[in-house]
Amino acid sequence: MAAKCEGSSVASDLIDFLNASPTAFHAVDEAKRRLCQAGYEQVSEREDWKLEVGKRYFFTRNHSTIVAFAIGKKFVAGNGFHIVGAHTDSPSLNLKPVSKVTKGGFLEVGVQTYGGGLWHTWFDRDLTVAGRVIIKEEKDGSVAYSHRLVRIKEPIMRIPTLAIHLDRNVNNDGFKVNTQSHLVPVLATSIKAELNKVVAENGPVEGGDGKKSEESTAANSKHHPLLLQIIADQMGCQIDDICDFELQVCDTQPSTLGGATKEFVFSGRLDNLCMSFCSLKALIDSTSSESNLEDESGVRMVALFDHEEVGSNSAQGAGSPVLLDALSRITNSFNSDSKVLQKAIQRSFVVSADMAHALHPNYTDRHEENHQPKLHGGLVIKHNANQRYATNAVTSFIFREIAVKHNLPVQDFVVRNDSACGSTIGPILASGVGIRTVDVGAPQLSMHSIREMCAVDDVKHSYEHFKAFFEEFSHLDAVITVDI
After folding, report:
1. What share of the chain is helix, strand, coil (3-state, %, to 5)?
2. How many whole angstroms separate alpha carbon 155 and alpha carbon 253?
3. What are the φ and ψ backbone dihedral angles of 35, each rounded to 5 degrees?
4. What is the pTM of this model?
5. Picking from 16-30, 188-202, 274-288, 450-464, which range would have the lowest pLDDT averaged per residue?
6. At a CB cut-off of 8 Å and minimum separation 6, what does 482 contact?
């Protein structure tokens, strides 16, 4: 019973993290809040770093990628980094640079697809928008520009399906979505929007500063004034103060525990905020006191990257120098000899954590017969001979040995030979940095749907496995011989 309560406690904490994180920007903001609360100090990539052993730090890049690390008290330059890597982004519908669409008497919002989503699941959902906005502000007589997060909690949009009477064969032929013409959220009817405009023009619409909002011609030509006004009201500014934004469509239904015995997590963005949360919590809890780092000779690190769902090729993706930059700057803080970093990389290890495909009871034939990960079965070690995953015998053994020592369940997965295999940040980091890597993930169903599901037990297993990795790796790696 105690174990069940502990599992539910970790899962409940995950629910809070998910509900605070409708976008990658918000996920990083929530991670930052938790790290600060735990005593981590923020450093800036724009400044010199003055680091000390036994201390804990983090930095963000683009506010959609975050790297946190704790330096062991026995660390010397050249020692290894023990890293869990995950990603903050999920498939979504992102507003186009010009989102203003008017069709058939409706105001609609133009969106572009991000990643490989199950787009049919976005129909008939109560939707809203969230993301970041660049705001113009006047301070002490001068103009400044700031990045601020925004989230409209009320459902303001919907993508309705076509009535079956107008598509009689949909159940036999399948629901076929044209992502350009069908996947356009409805914001309002034109007549209601026009009535709202008349009311606004006859009386002042006040922003957060009490001044009358004067709609910008440039902004209104790209986006519906009604949408801009909702955003401005939420942020307490004028429409004219909105310089630009990156917004995405979000489901308003909150994440929750579900199932007849409350054994599941029902939520959007489990891929991959579940792994982001578990790795972050494991790092924080494994470094919560000074004694945790007393015998640590390495650096414990979590790296949560943006843009995995679209290939990681961005300034803040796993394909960028962000991880190598971090390893270099930390090492150079203690020794400026460039050769020391090369030694450190060969002593380091990455756990690439990205959600895995659980066996689906209605599609059991889609899994290879001897590799069928189950919910509640623990973290899944992913293998692929063609290097779509970076796991090898050494890295798999290390991760499995930690599980054995802590009595944690673990599973294996390979894709069927007649199916395409997905990939992760694992091969990108392994090839780009030259670092030993194992690819793992908690099993889930409905991957890339607007609502996904995983098991409460696997959230607990993942957290405990990552925490054990941070605490055990230095000792285990010292007794493994390969390239000698």
Report:
1. 35, 25, 40
2. 9
3. -65, -45
4. 0.93
5. 188-202
6. 394
